[in-house]
Structures are given as structure tokens and as C-alpha cells.
Amino acid sequence: MYTLEFSNPSCQDVREVGGKAAGLAAMTAAGLPVAPGFAVTAAAYRRYLDEAGLRQFTSEVLGRLGPDAGQAAFDDAERTITARLAQVPLPQEVADGIRAAYAGLCRDTGVEDMAVAVRSSATAEDSVGASFAGEFETWVDITGAEDVLAYVHKCYLSVFAGRVLSYLAEKEIEPHAVEMAVVIQKTVRARSAGVMFTLSPTSGDRSKIVLEASWGLGLSVVGGEVTPDRFLVDKIGLAIVDRTPGHKHIEYRRGDAPQDVPAERREVLCLDDDEVVALATLGKRLEKIHRAPQDIEFAVDEELPPGMNLVLLQCRPETVWSNAERKPAFDASAGMMSWIAGSISGAPAATAADVEGVHTHSHKH
């Protein structure tokens, strides 16, 4: 099967859909608020590599890379491989499966030519030990079945990017051990978005939940382009102990280019207290499900009514403090956003029983 909706129990198989999609499927099964979508499975990627001898071709090119290969050699390999892969379209049955799943998503939500995010969900991704965060691409606001196909193809090419190949070599991971599944998910129309850590990312304090958020889509936050609002919540009583307004001078409304935020909104908090508490409640629940601190990407969808407008985008194990002997992977003085490299990925699967009875309540300004 080349596509699986998040609501399909088989979509929780990390080996077939990657950690990102499995995490979204587990959250969907548990009744947690995620934007609807489906996964293009690793089987589709394998089928693509079998097309026109691509697996043999990529193996030959990669086989010429010596143990002491530098970045220039990896970049050369990327050029050679992507030039060939760019000429080979997705196999017909894979393309037909994606078209049908996209049509179903549009039908189920009542949105014609729905704008979707196309996210890489590599099957070697998201283990706490070797996180691929930021190594692969995400594209937002892709509309129409043919464009969706084009961006799935781009995800496949991204496996062989020079920086990914050098990263894999450094971690001693064989590139063909990485199989690319892809998440296709409704683009959230975010009034506000950001990230939440179920511990303090600067001190490791497990008694606190930290949220950082800004206006619009989360691109400005994970890209470090704005100083986000920061909220500190006491994990036990869910009291908000600190609210620090940021300087939110730009926002992404549609995911392509940023626009200026009007001066009167720049210093205004982008989440109200009810939303902060509801998100922190979800964070506690996710930490309990996965039995480890989490980092979570979220949005407040302006197309949805209060009480339904909080959307969890991605969730993965927090990797800095979960291994006590590991040193922090970022400069605390630069703020926690400095080390999040553009992609926050899916957590291991949870069972619905783990998260029975999750409800969120929030109020829009």
C-alpha cells in the first residue's frame, strides 16, 4: 500500500511511515488535535528506487565515496544523483495512489484543491540517539494533486543532498538504510504558532513547561527570525508563572514570504492564558504517553472555532536533556530557538488508551 491515512492503524508502523507520520497517526488515534492528512509509505520510495535502475545507480555513485570524503565530494555525488533522479518521475501506481488520497482529503474536509504541507518522514529519523531534525525538507502551501506529486519527488531527492550524505557518513549510517516516507497534511491557517518543551530547554528543569510562539505560521519561530513570546508554566498546578512578550515584527500567513506585523500587534502576546494552559495540558499528556520529555510544535488555527482551534503539528522526544551525560547542543545565551533546525518530528507511537479523554478548551481574542 502506497498511502495510509493518519486514521489507519497501519499508519503507526514507524518502519513503514517514519517517526513523523507514526506520531501524527498515534495522536489522531488518541483523539489529540492534529491537522488531517495521510502518509506516502516507504514502500512507495522503495518502488521508486526500483524504477529505471535507480537503486543500482545511486549505489554505484555512493560506492565511489571514500572514507575520507570531504563535503565537496558529497556535493558532487548529490549533483550526479539528483540529475538522474530528476529525469525519472514517480511510478504510475504510486502517483495514482497519491492522487486518490489527496482527492479523499479534499473531499473529507470540504476544501477543493486544499493547501497542504509536504513533510519528509524518514524511517531512520527521530530516534533520540541520532536525530535527523532539520536534515530533510518541509514545504507548505502546496495545492493541487500534480504539485503534491512534484514535492513528494523532491522529498525523495532530498535523501541524497550533500549535507545529508555527509551527516549520514559521520553517523556511519548507510544512505539506503534511510527510506523516505512523506507526510501530506492540511496546511494549518495559523493565527499563532510555536514550540513547547515539557521541561526547561536551558536548565533541564522538569517541573516547568516552556512555550515560545509568534504570529502566523511557526516558520518565523523555528527559523529564528523573530523574538517569540515566551510563557513559563508550572507543570504541577498549570499556573502561568511568567509571560515575556517578544518582538514579533514579521509573520508568515501563507508560508511563502513573510509580511510585516503592524506595530500595534508586535508586542501583544499571541496566545491568551486559556490557550497557554490548554497547550500545557496537552504537553503534560504527551509527556505521560511517551514517558519522556517532549518537544512539540503547535498552532492556533484561525479557520477553526475556539475549543477546536489548537492543533498539534509535530511531537518528538526532547534530545538534549533526556540523556544526562550529553552536553547541551545549543548556546543557552542565544535562546532555545537557535538549535532547532527547521523540523520538529514525530514521536514514537502511543496507544489510544494512553490518552483517553483529552479535551482542550481555549478562547480566541
Which properties best describe this structure?
single chain; 6-stranded antiparallel β-sheet; 13 strands; 32% helix; disordered C terminus; metal-binding; Phosphoenolpyruvate synthase; 365 residues; alpha+beta; globular; 5-stranded antiparallel β-sheet; D-amino Acid Aminotransferase, Chain A, domain 1; 2 domains; 10 helices; Dna Ligase, domain 1
What is the total domain count? 2
Q: Whole-number radius of gyration? A: 20 Å
How far do the termini sit from each other? 44 Å
Largest sheet: 6 strands, antiparallel
Tally of separate helices: 10
- Give the full name of the CATH homologous superfamily of the largest domain: ATP-grasp fold, A domain
Tell me the helix content: 25-40%
